[in-house]
Structure formats: structure tokens, C-alpha cells
């Protein structure tokens, strides 16, 4: 402010030394005003008299010179003298307003403030104030009244649309002080709009996120933004989330273990609100009133506790039930809660969305971090999509062992492109398109479906197309009798576009349509149903291979009988597509995808399966053709690799990765301690000892020897079976590897459900 006032533009007239208008160089206060207003109030009153009111916009300087420049000495002196008084905020606001007024004076004179300050710093050796458009290396040590920012400015913290203001030290000793994170994550600034100066607070990432708030800073709103802004450093997210979690209302977050039955959990007392109504005589009420006065402090505390509990319960109801938050602003809602308890005053939707929900979300985030910090064998998945605006949306999920995801894609849309199915797919699309646009036809179809006891109605074709094509075609096949009923009723006059009515009345077109529909469903059905099976929460990697075998075996049986008279080219193409998908999933990248084969072998239910000799029974043997020097051509088949051998090699690769570089010479002073961090269950073994024990234990498992001869219970998973063996000295190397393999979730269903 001192720099600004000493160098105001010449468009402002210089003060006459004999009759200065401001006269701050000889500033004194009247004793009566000090008695009436207090020292700070008297200074504030005198500044208003000399500088004018500020409620109609920024101050306009009428003259410049020493009599005006001395206002900084006045403000600085009283701020130092009364720094313990909370009333100093009045003087701090004067510093802000005068700084804005001076910067506006430069702007009105067409003088860039940045050029002005750089000129002063180079020519006069004056201290400069770092502005958003200055280089960080040119900023000198700030004045004492400017607070040092403990976090270095981010590369995107410069926003040319705003002129930043320096932070003024908060010297108050009482009352709530500004949170340090608000100073680090935001900047006080102003923006001139059509002749008016608007004082604002902006996010340090406002260049990208464009977020600003009206001054002064609103703590909860800014913290909520800092916790999720994607254009600032992650350390802001963590600190803001930690703060919001600390001030959140309601009970402490507790994430139960997946083995705990939800039905046995008792409801928390914090979620209950007891409403009691007492009826009595007037004398009893008078006596009660006298007692209430003596307990008024406790009553106030009780009302506060009641409000916090009910606010937390209302917030959970709004969020978990998907109710619009504006419901709490309605008169009906207020009347409901008033009837339940007159002592509770309902919160507003603004407080709900800007404070309560943000704090609860932060508390949950912190609780999840603490829970995952102690968990092992986590699976991380991500997915992307778009929302309506349109904007990109990316999701990241962390899945813990036991089903709460290794990424698997089983999209076989190529089957839908086979020439034999092109016409029937076109017909199904035409029928469903007509029904989705004709409310009249849809209502009559639903009526006939109910009369004919057809359980489910029509299903649409979604964006993913492959899976939904099957279920949509199946719904059309299921609804053919209902279609026939509404089309044969001439009084309804239903005419499906594209001459598709003939598909549902007796005759050749209907017979051919039903045959083509059956062919399509018989080929696509195994894949669609397999995908549906893999959408469960408890799916593990061995289930993927198991389902794949079911798909291939169903195709083999269908093609051998060929009841639907499929073309040879269709069956050959289906085999080719299936084998291609199998190779992509299982064979082409064994360093990672052998997980499916490995977990299948490690599932004791499948231990004696005859499939072990050939991974893909539908694939033909590998044929090798060679030509000798003499010109003799020979053909030979290569036997497929044994699944057990593949699983053994894959488990050895996992074991090697578990140890990594922990035992490299000179890498870690305490390899055992490093292994306790990586995998405590293997810390007692050196790499060579672990490998020797693994080979012995894996052979014993394949043979079904003790302790691997233990039967699996009906309600026990493969992961649970191996966890029961992890403490056995005869399984203490193989069991940790199996637990890691079965902890991986093979699908990305959490991401799909979110999207």
C-alpha cells in the first residue's frame, strides 16, 4: 500500500501543502471520540470522515502527496499497538480497501500494475510485492505485514484475470483465526468489472478450475473445493479432507471386516432420536418450569447434541436414499420434524450440501484410507466415461480380498458381425425401435403379456451392444405370442415400420424369423450368460477360466449336433473367434494372464479335473510342418503344455516378485525387515529356502497330501480354504502365494456400476 500511494499516477492532483485534504501526516484523535468509540473505532470513524464511505464502490483519491501517504503510518501504528484486539479487523479492511483503490487508480490511468512494480524494484531498490504475473525469482523479501506462504506457488497458480493482494498478518489473540490451509490454497485478489472493483478470493488453481468466492473466506466451502480440485497439488486434497473429517458430526466411522455379518450388527445409538411427550397438571408444569431454569445450561447442551444427531441422521437419509437436498427446505418437511420434536430446528439445504455432506464425505475418505493402509493384496481398477454436460469422468476403485477387482474383457462383438446374423439383428432392432417410440403399441403389448403370463417384458439394446443384443433378442422371442395378439387385432391398427408385422403372424416369414432368432441366441447365448455369471461380487480369477470352459464346451456340443442347422462358415468363425479370445486371455501373455490357469489349479474343488492335460479342449493341436534338406516334408503335432506345469512356473514368478530386490547385496541393511513390510508371511524365509519349500508344498498339494487333503466346506471359498492353511508349517509358503492370487478380483464391476 505504501508503494502504491507514494507513486500514484499524475492524473490525481498533488496536494497543496498549506491546505491538505487528508492530513494524515499530523493525525490525532479527539479524547471524546476515544471514549465514545474506543481507540480502534475512533480511528475507523476518522478514516470514514476523511476518505469517504466505501459502500458504493472503491475509494476515489482526490489528491496525492505526503498527507495521504502517511495513512500507512497511522494504520501500521495502531495495528502494532492494539494487535491483541479483535477490532483490528476494521483496520485490516482499510488496508485492503485502500490497496484496491490505489490499484484501480493505476488501471484508470492505463498503467499496468506489474510494469509499475517491476520499474520500482529495478530503479529505486524498493521492496516489491509479488503479483501473479511476476517471476518468482524477482520477488524480494516481503514486508513484515505480509505472511510467508509455507507452500511454494504451483506452476498453474498464476491467473492473469486477477490481481492478487498480499496477505495481512492476523495479529488477533482471541476469536477464531484463519486456517493456514486457506492461506496456502487461495489468494486474495480483485477483478475490475465494468468500472467496479470486486474483491474476491480465488483458488490457486483458478486458471484451470475457474473457482472464486466472495470475500471474506468461507472456510467450509473453500475446504470442500480444495479437497477435490483436480488442478492443485494432492497435498491440498489430503489436508483439506483431514480437516473436514475432523469437524464432521456424527459417530466415528468404523468399517467392519468383510467376515462380519451385517445382520448381527447393532444399530448405533447416535442414529436414534427419542421423542417423549409428558402430560400433567398446571401445578406440575409450574414446578417443572422452576426446575428447568436451574438446568438451563444442560438443556442448551442437550438441544445442541440433539441437533447434531438429527442433522447427521437427516444427512444420511438424504444421501443414502437419493432424496434431493432441497426437500429439507419445504414446509412439509419442517412440519414433520416439528411434530416429531419441537426442540429441533431443521437445517437448510445449503448447510446440508456445503457443510454436512462435505464433512461426512471427508470423514469416510479418511476412514477408507486408514482401513486400506492396514490391508494387503489390493486390486486397483479404473474406468472412464462421459456425463451429460459432456465431460470426461474417470473412476478408480480399490478392491480388497473377499470380493470388495485384474482387469478382464470378454467382449465378443465379432460374433454379432457374422453374415448369418445380420438380417435377424436388423429385424430385432427395428421391432424394439418401434416399440420404444409407440406408447400405444407398448401399452397394448404389456396388456397382452400379462394375459399370456409372459414373465418379463422387452429389453433395450444398450451402448455396449454385445451383451444387451442377446437379452433384447431373447425378450423379443419371449414376447412373440403377445406381438401376434396385438398385430392380429385389426381394430388396433398397429403397423411396425419396415413390413415387420409379418414376423409375428403365421407364415413363412415368421417361421424363418424364429429359426434365425434361435440360431443367433444359440451362438451368442453362452457368451452373454457367461458375462452375467462374472458380474458377481465374489468372483475370483479361477471362475473366469471355469466359465470360459463352460462356454467352449457348450459350443462344442451345439456344433456337434447342429440342431439349428448353422452354416459351416458360421461354426468355423465362431470357433475361430472363441479360440482367439482364449489365446488373448490365457496364452499370449502368460507372465500376467497365467493367473486364471494358476487359480484354477489352486482351487481344491478342481484339483482332479481331467482338463489339466489340455488348457483349451476346443483348440486343435499345434501342427508343425518341416522340410528336410533332401526335400522330404514331415508333419508333427506338439502336445499342449500341462496346466500344472504352467501354474507352478507362474507361482514361482509371483514368489520372485514378492522378494524383489530385498536380498540384493548392499540394497537394504535389514532384508528381513524389508520383507516384513512387503509380505510378513514370507519374512522368515530367505529366497532359496522359500523356493525349496514351495516346490515341496506344491507337489504335496497336487497329490492331495496332508495338510492339503482338508475338505472344503459348503459355505467356504477357495480364499478361505487357503487362509486356514497359512499358519501350517507344511503350507507356509504356498498358502501366502495362493492367498495373493485369490485376493485378485478379475472383473471391473465396481467401475461399471459407478459409470
UniProtKB/TrEMBL annotation:
<dbReference type="InterPro" id="IPR012337">
    <property type="entry name" value="RNaseH-like_sf"/>
</dbReference>
<protein>
    <submittedName>
        <fullName>Uncharacterized protein</fullName>
    </submittedName>
</protein>
Amino acid at each position: 500500500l505504501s508503494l502504491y500511494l507514494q507513486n500514484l499516477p499524475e492524473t490525481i492532483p498533488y496536494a497543496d501543502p498549506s491546505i491538505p485534504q487528508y492530513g494524515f501526516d499530523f493525525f490525532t484523535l479527539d479524547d471524546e471520540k476515544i471514549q465514545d468509540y474506543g481507540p480502534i473505532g475512533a480511528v475507523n470513524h476518522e478514516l470514514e470522515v476523511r476518505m469517504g464511505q466505501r459502500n458504493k464502490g472503491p475509494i476515489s483519491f482526490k489528491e496525492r502527496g505526503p498527507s495521504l501517504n502517511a495513512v500507512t503510518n497511522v494504520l501500521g501504528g495502531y495495528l502494532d499497538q492494539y494487535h491483541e484486539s479483535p477490532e483490528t479487523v476494521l483496520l485490516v479492511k482499510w488496508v485492503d480497501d485502500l490497496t484496491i483503490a490505489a490499484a484501480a487508480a493505476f488501471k484508470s490511468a492505463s498503467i499496468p500494475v506489474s510494469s509499475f512494480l517491476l520499474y520500482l524494484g529495478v530503479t529505486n531498490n524498493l521492496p516489491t510485492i509479488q503479483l501473479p504475473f511476476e517471476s518468482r525469482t524477482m520477488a524480494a523479501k516481503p514486508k513484515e505485514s505480509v505472511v510467508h506462504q509455507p507452500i511454494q506457488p504451483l506452476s498453474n497458480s498464476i491467473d492473469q484475470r486477477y490481481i492478487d493482494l498480499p496477505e495481512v498478518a492476523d495479529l488477533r489473540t482471541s476469536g477464531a483465526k484463519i486456517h493456514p490451509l486457506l492461506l496456502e490454497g487461495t489468494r486474495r485478489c480483485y477483478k475490475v468489472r465494468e468500472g467496479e472493483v470486486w474483491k474476491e478470493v480465488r483458488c490457486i488453481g483458478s486458471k484451470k478450475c475457474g473457482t472464486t468466492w466472495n470475500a471474506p473466506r468461507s472456510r467450509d466451502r473453500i475446504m470442500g473445493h480444495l479437497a477435490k480440485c483436480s488442478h492443485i497439488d494432492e497435498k491440498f486434497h489430503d489436508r483439506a479432507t483431514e480437516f473436514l473429517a475432523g469437524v464432521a458430526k456424527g459417530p466415528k466411522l468404523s468399517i467392519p471386516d468383510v467376515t462380519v455379518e451385517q445382520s448381527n450388527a447393532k444399530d448405533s445409538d447416535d442414529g436414534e432420536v427419542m421423542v417423549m411427550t409428558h402430560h400433567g397438571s398446571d401445578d406440575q408444569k409450574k414446578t417443572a418450569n422452576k426446575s428447568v431454569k436451574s438446568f438451563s445450561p444442560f438443556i442448551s447442551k442437550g438441544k445442541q447434541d440433539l441437533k447434531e444427531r438429527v442433522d447427521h441422521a437427516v444427512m444420511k437419509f438424504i444421501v443414502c436414499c437419493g432424496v434431493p437436498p432441497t426437500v429439507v427446505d419445504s414446509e412439509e418437511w419442517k412440519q414433520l420434524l416439528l411434530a416429531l420434536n419441537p426442540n429441533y430446528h431443521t437445517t437448510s439445504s445449503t448447510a446440508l450440501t456445503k457443510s454436512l455432506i462435505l464433512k461426512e464425505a471427508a470423514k469416510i475418505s479418511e476412514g477408507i484410507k486408514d482401513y486400506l493402509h492396514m490391508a494387503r493384496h489390493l486390486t486397483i481398477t479404473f474406468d472412464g466415461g462421459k456425463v451429460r454436460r459432456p465431460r470426461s469422468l474417470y473412476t478408480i476403485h480399490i478392491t480388497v480380498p473377499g470380493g470388495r477387482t485384474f482387469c478382464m474383457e470378454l467382449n465378443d462383438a465379432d460374433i454379432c458381425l457374422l453374415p448369418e446374423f445380420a438380417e435377424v439383428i436388423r429385424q430385432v432392432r427395428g421391432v424394439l425401435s418401434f416399440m420404444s417410440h409407440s406408447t400405444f403399441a407398448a401399452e397394448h403389448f404389456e396388456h397382452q403379456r400379462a394375459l399370456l403370463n409372459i414373465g418379463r417384458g422387452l429389453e433395450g439394446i444398450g451402448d455396449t451392444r454385445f451383451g444387451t443384443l442377446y437379452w433384447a433378442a431373447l425378450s423379443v422371442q419371449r414376447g412373440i405370442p403377445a406381438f401376434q395378439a396385438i398385430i392380429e387385432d385389426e381394430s388396433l391398427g398397429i403397423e411396425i415400420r419396415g413390413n415387420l408385422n409379418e414376423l409375428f403372424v403365421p407364415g413363412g416369414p415368421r417361421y424363418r424369423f424364429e429359426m434365425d432368432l434361435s440360431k443367433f441366441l444359440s451362438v451368442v447365448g453362452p457368451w452373454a450368460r457367461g458375462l452375467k455369471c462374472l458380474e458377481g461380487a465374489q468372483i475370483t480369477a479361477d471362475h473366469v477360466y471355469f466359465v470360459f470352459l463352460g462356454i467352449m464346451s457348450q459350443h462344442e456340443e451345439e456344433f456337434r449336433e447342429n440342431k439349428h442347422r448353422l452354416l459351416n462358415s458360421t461354426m468355423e468363425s465362431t470357433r475361430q473367434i472363441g479360440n482367439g479370445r482364449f489365446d488373448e486371455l490365457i496364452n499370449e501373455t502368460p507372465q500376467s494372464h497365467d493367473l486364471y490357469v494358476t487359480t484354477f489349479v489352486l482351487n481344491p474343488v478342481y484339483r482332479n479335473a481331467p482338463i489339466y492335460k489340455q488348457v483349451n479342449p476346443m483348440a486343435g493341436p499345434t501342427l508343425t510342418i518341416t522340410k528336410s534338406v533332401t526335400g522330404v516334408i514331415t508333419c508333427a503335432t506338439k502336445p499342449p503344455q500341462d496346466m500344472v506345469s504352467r501354474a507352478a512356473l507362474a507361482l514361482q514368478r509371483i514368489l520372485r516378485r514378492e522378494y524383489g530386490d530385498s536380498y540384493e547385496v548392499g540394497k537394504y541393511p535389514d532384508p528381513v525387515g524389508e520383507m516384513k513390510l512387503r509380505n510378513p508371511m514370507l519374512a522368515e524365509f530367505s529366497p532359496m529356502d522359500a523356493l525349496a519349500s514351495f516346490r515341496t508344498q506344491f507337489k504335496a498339494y497336487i497329490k492331495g497330501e496332508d495338510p492339503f487333503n482338508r475338505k472344503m466346506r459348503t459355505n467356504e471359498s477357495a480364499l478361505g480354504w487357503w487362509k486356514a492353511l497359512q499358519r501350517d508349517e507344511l503350507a507356509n509358503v504356498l498358502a501366502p502365494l495362493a492367498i495373493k492370487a485369490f485376493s485378485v478380483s478379475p472383473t471391473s464391476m465396481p467401475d461399471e456400476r459407478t459409470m
